[in-house]
Amino acid sequence: QVRLVESGGGSVQAGGSLRLSCAVSGYTYRLAWFRQAPGKEREGVATLAGDGSTTYADSVKGRFTISKDNAKNTLHLQMNSLKPDDTGVYYCAADARWWLETSRAGKDYTYWGQGTQVTVSS
Question: Which of the four pLDDT bands, split at 50, 70 and 90, describes residue 122?
């Protein structure tokens, strides 16, 4: 059974940085970060496949970096140059189906963390 536990959210001023972490237990192949702002649909922010390849939403390219500490089995999302539009609940997601193509669609991920709040003030 896969379990995901996020941490690292908080409040920061625009231009600041935050680092989110997600402790992963169980077998996974594809990992991702999603976010959901109030009144908006859930958005896939970044993905990391088992072969190390990554993808990013256009809105965060050049500012966010997804990575994984394999020794600690922990997924990270380094967020720099934060903007008020980055505000939302951030979720860690995982899936074990290695044969699926890389995706930032929520329907393609089976396991989800509880979410962590990120608030960016102007």
Answer: very high
